[in-house]
């Protein structure tokens, strides 16, 4: 495809974001980019898998088949991961953590299909981090008293001496930035390296770069997915504490 959807451009391999087509929206010209197209492809893949999984589990048998085994393994893995990290709060956040885990993982490994990973676009990773940031502070105000929040913002000094307040506020605001940049930079670096490899070697880069794809797309992508979700669960769990409302 000529617009970078499959990491290919008019002049060869390309890892940049391109406009696919343009349309007018209330007098403004809006572009549909390769990131939008790749996100749509990932969403369609996940939707097809979800529909197939629902139908399979509706007819689940005591002796599961191959697909049922895969579905049960995914659910059990996510359940153990969320339960082990969030304890009593796990049932409330299993759907959210499971959703972002599967979406980020499939997005990261979509490079194996020749797509430009959606998570290599900061416009995708930042909203995910902002969702986490919103949940963190929702739980902070739900489970902590205002005086406790103020004391934490002034820490390590007493609450009547808020010298460290600006630094602690900056530290709190930096959470979504660090979460989004970590995921974005790692995925983009792998995408850029593979694109440069194909661009420099041309036809010589046939078959053998598959090993590099396994590392950059599969191994590194899985690690970054796990890190993002683990940090999300850790931040939220720290704010929930023992689960007692203020």
Lay out the secondary structure.
Layout lengths: L7 E2 L2 E2 L5 E7 L2 E6 H25 L7 H21 L3 H20 L12 H22 L2 H9 L10 H37 L8 H31 L6
Helix pairs in contact: 1-3, 2-3, 3-7, 4-6, 4-7, 6-7
Care to describe what's here?
This protein is mainly alpha-helical and 246 residues long. It has one domain (64-240). It has helices at 34-58, 66-86, 90-109, 122-143, 146-154, 165-201, 210-240, and strands at residues 8-9, 12-13, 19-25, 28-33. Helix 2 packs across helix 3 (90-109) and helix 3 packs antiparallel against helix 7. The chain is globular and about 65 Å long. The protein starts with 7 loop residues before the first strand and ends in a 6-residue tail after the last helix. Residues 1-5 have low confidence and may be disordered. It is found in: Cell membrane; Membrane. Key component of the proton channel; it plays a direct role in the translocation of protons across the membrane. InterPro entries: ATP_syn_F0_a_bact/chloroplast, ATP_synth_F0_asu, ATP_synth_F0_asu_AS, F0_ATP_A_sf.
